[in-house]
Amino acid sequence: MGSTGLQELxxxxxxxxxxEQAIRGIVRRYYAVWWVYSFAGxxxxxxxxxxxxxxxLNQFQMNGVMAVYFVTILLTDVPxxxxxxxxxxxxxxxxxxxxxxxxxxxxxxxxxxVLFLVAEAIDGLGTTFCSGAIDAWGVDxxxxxxxxxxxxxxxxRVSQLMNAGFMASALVGAYAGQIDLxxxxxxGAAGYAVSAVTGALLMHEDRVGRIExxxxxxxxxxxxxxxxxLRLGFGRRSILLLSLxxxxxxxxxxxxxxxWPQLFRDSYHSGIGxxxxxxxxxxxxxxxxxxxxxxxSRRPARGRRRELVALVATSSVTLAAAGSLAKRPTLAxxxxxxxxxxxxxxxxxxxxWFNEEVGAEERxxxxxxxxTFAMLGGSAGLLGTGYFADRYGIGPAWQLLGLVLxxxxxxxxxxxxxxxxxxxxxxxxxxxxx
Length: 434
What we know:
- The structure is a single chain.
- The protein is an all-alpha fold.
- The protein contains 16 helices and no strands.
- 77% of the residues lie in helices and 0% in strands.
- It is globular.
- Residues 1-18 and 418-434 have low confidence and may be disordered.
């Protein structure tokens, strides 16, 4: 891994330009950092709720812990981004990995619900320091090296590497959790420590283009981003409806993520290791849906809302069906597989539609608006269905989540932009459009 990071410093081959060698070295380092970081994050995917349940938390409390994660990301995204802009992406990534190691260790040591909330807030803060730093560093380094082509393929490959890392570590974590549920946390903490070392070795950067932002300016930046997003988002019907649909989707998917390991662990009685394979199967289903969209992307934009409504209906029905079949786990798993294919196709379609609705100068603000709805929707879904699952069980909770997800369908159906909202080629949208 280290040799690829140094490739750009080696003398260029006689038939290869220096800039091309530099770009290849950056791309390989970029992929390496993302894969190691993703591998570190997957150890808990099959065991996280089982660990919390073993520590005495009920479903509402487990979901409350995850809601703290969403709220932490919502509140710290701007200040951690400002830190990365001012102090460097590498320092931001190293700090984030350090915080995630501390959060994982805190999870191992605590047994009280309130302290789990604190541990989750530490991990959420570490996530915001890390997540944007890798992409920002990679894009900046490639631009400085003269990488002139579109980066869509680059990001697509990163997504593939991330999922491969998640699946590999989820399997390891599941079998480690079969021995002791504390082991996935230890492996995760070690993985983030390795990620920090990898970032320190491979994320080379200089100070060109850094933005100096004083600490006292950060609250104003947060307020500007939030209120600016609210003003623009609520002033445009298509953006508001797409964001509401995203909120409904997050409200349904976030609780499901914490509940499926418990349902199948209680149903199969065959060891925690099988949960790792179930996670891999569901991830493959998601990737299959994404690939179908990628292969059929050349279609009229007007047909997209019909496809999204159909995908929402499919996801809703299959999630509710999985809840109805909770006592027949193999059939329930088959329903979840179909649901993940549908959601894998649904997410890139919705993201593409949203990005086509905004102009370049307002993209960051409206993406923040959309993200705010997603975090709030996810938190509300977690808390509401957590209470419901404690009273009635996971199966009925999934039936309720199916209904919640179905509310996204009318949002997509009515989100077609009005003629005044359409952007003609060469035009941009500014605040006047609100």
